[in-house]
Design a protein that fits this description.
Largest sheet: 5 strands, antiparallel
Low-confidence stretches: 161-173
Number of helices: 13
Radius of gyration: 25 Å
Number of strands: 5
Length: 271
């Protein structure tokens, strides 16, 4: 073994660890209230967690990858330590799937079933099915985005054509703001900053297309000066989007609601 073999080994390990880190971070950003609920159901008992860990490791064929993902999810508070223990135990079982796949390559016979279970046969089939799903999912997302843009255009048109003789509605519109956050961690940081300073009505939604988080926040019982300061703080963490009264109904119908009415207050209680 010369020095080039050692450097190749170190480079491979570095790429592997970096890839696992990127995958774990991506799952943390992807995770929301719905994913946390699914993981809670799949790991509600030790047996379920072991089976879940076995299946996940069998799919990605890397017990280390499963462990890295578990660590990331535990750090983000999406999974508990108790849940992750069962998953890691299952990962040690699932890592044997790789050896079984290699063994299947040596299976020979005239039976159609034996031919289908060989990796060189079912791997292309799985890849083909995955590509079909990917194409349909992309088309569905494209149609949903077009519908979203069309409805936004309709809302902006309705706002422009609305009569100016409605001071009550105008006042309510001016005292409600919409902020767009890149991830849930940023929302939680902003919630901690505003803890004790804001106690009004606010709801948090998640865009299923962009994976971004949208906060609709109202002035409620705060003075205009107080609300303006609160909005200035939120502007440091999120982008300010134009808000029209009809957008609340659109969000309730087309987006996933994460926390309703007291989003910042409840998120501020998280560690």
């Amino acid at each position: 073994m010369d020095i080039t073999h050692i450097t190749s080994l170190l480079g491979g390990i570095a790429l592997f660890l970096y890839g696992m880190s990127i995958m774990g971070a991506g799952l943390e950003k992807l995770a929301g209230g719905k994913m946390q609920g699914v993981l809670q159901k799949l790991t509600s008992s030790t047996l379920k967690a072991v089976i879940f860990g076995t299946l996940i490791t069998g799919v990605i064929q890397s017990s280390a990858g499963t462990v890295v993902i578990c660590v990331g999810l535990v750090n983000s508070g999406i999974m508990t330590l108790t849940q992750s223990v069962g998953v890691i135990m299952g990962a040690n079982i699932g890592t044997t799937v790789t050896g079984q796949l290699i063994r299947m390559a040596d299976i020979s016979g005239d039976s159609l079933w034996l031919t289908l279970i060989q990796p060189k046969t079912f791997a292309p089939v799985v890849a083909f099915v995955g590509c079909i799903f990917y194409v349909f999912i992309r088309n569905a997302k494209k149609k949903a985005m077009e519908q979203y843009n069309a409805e936004n255009t309709t809302e902006e048109t309705a706002e422009k054509e609305a009569p100016e003789t409605a001071p009550a509605d105008t006042a309510a519109f001016n005292l409600t703001r919409l902020y767009r956050f890149r991830d849930l961690d940023t929302v939680i940081r902003a919630a901690h900053i505003l803890e004790g300073h804001y106690n009004g009505e606010n709801s948090l939604y998640k865009d299923p297309l962009t994976r971004e988080y949208h906060l609709i926040i109202s002035k409620s019982g705060h003075t205009p000066e107080e609300f303006n300061k609160i909005c200035n703080i939120l502007s440091e963490y999120a982008g300010n989007r134009k808000y029209v009264p009809t957008m609340r109904a659109f969000y309730q119908e087309h987006m996933e609601i994460i926390v309703k009415d007291e989003a910042l207050q409840k998120l501020a209680q998280l560690a």
